[in-house]
Amino acid sequence: MVTSPQSPKGEAAAAPAPASAPLSAEAQTAAGILPASHWTEQALPEEGPGNDGASTLGSFMSTTASLASSIYQYRTVQGRTYHGELGNAESWEPNDPRHVEALDLLHHALMLQTDGKLYLAPLEKKKVQKVLDIATGSGLWSIDFADEFPNAEVIGTDVTPIQPSWVPPNVQFELEDCNQEWTWAANTFDFINMRFMNGIVTDWYALFRNAYRVCKPGGWVESSGTSGRFYSHDGTVKEGSAIDQWGIVFREGGKKLGRTFTVYEEDVQRKGMEAAGFVDIQFRDIEVPLGVWHPDKKAAERGLWWKMAVEADIEGYINYFWNAALGWTPEEAKVFARYVKKEWNDPNIHGYFILRVAWGRKPE
């Protein structure tokens, strides 16, 4: 069984260099990964009315920013499009309209986890003049923050131009790879926001060093990241189950590409902030249920929205790593996704993951 995690204490191991070929069958077995045949040789679970994810929520905006035409030369992996060449960037999430809609849902799901707050750092509204949103995705956080802080300039960055073009006048989007040396001058920003960078960052210590350099004295940085797998307090997330395998594949895939998914388990947010020089570091760990099994109505609503956000494009979330790490075909990955959705919709499986929001201040 997979039980609740303890607070992370050990030092994070250095990530190995990325490899090009999928993990060997022996390596997959050693890591506890079940073969594709384990899922494809079983009868497919039926797609019940509870398994349609966010299909009833309609479509969200999916226009693109006005940037140089060369950046629209996207890569295609297993039938889905991904960002074009930009340094050594290697995002595992697609950038097509279906996934952009899923990212919009994810923004709302995260807002529910933090009681509708865009940030938890103790910002003084009058002092916030310039803000940086790293890995902005579909751009909704930048847009919402700009609406709440109309006198602040907000810059959202990403490796792919999937942000809307109609935005508040105090928002702009730029194409940047956060793993490269940041291009802004020292002491530029009052607040730096970084969300959902699991599987993206090659060096978390370098990331926070960059953030420290461009943050103004007295300014704040905030990072939101998740655990690398699902847990349960009562042992209902079983070893070998689809949602247990979900975490194992992302963990091993992150190791293979040198971009960890175990952000919470390795405690990289706190450690990176401390090493960079930030002070007054605080964090909040939030248990996020998957599905509506939780007896508390508010927690069940939080779980429902997170489930809908992932189910809106579950194939997109697993497409890259199930191919890069395991060598599976899209058809095999889709079969696995059916089993994941079945377990997420089972009220007898009480799975959850940890969302950690951490923030720290640059000394004045």
TrEMBL record:
Ordered alphabetically, the record's keywords are: Methyltransferase, Transferase
- One Pfam annotation reads Methyltransf_23
From the UniProt record, which GO molecular function terms apply? methyltransferase activity
Q: Does the keyword Transferase apply?
A: yes
Report the InterPro entries cross-referenced here. SAM-dependent_MTases_sf
Q: Which SUPFAM superfamilies match?
A: S-adenosyl-L-methionine-dependent methyltransferases
Q: Tell me a GO biological process for this protein.
A: methylation
Where is this chain compositionally biased, Low complexity type? Answer: 11-26
Q: Does the keyword Transit peptide apply?
A: no
Q: Where is this region: Disordered?
A: 1-26
The family assignment reads: Belongs to the methyltransferase superfamily. LaeA methyltransferase family.
Report the protein name in the record: S-adenosyl-L-methionine-dependent methyltransferase
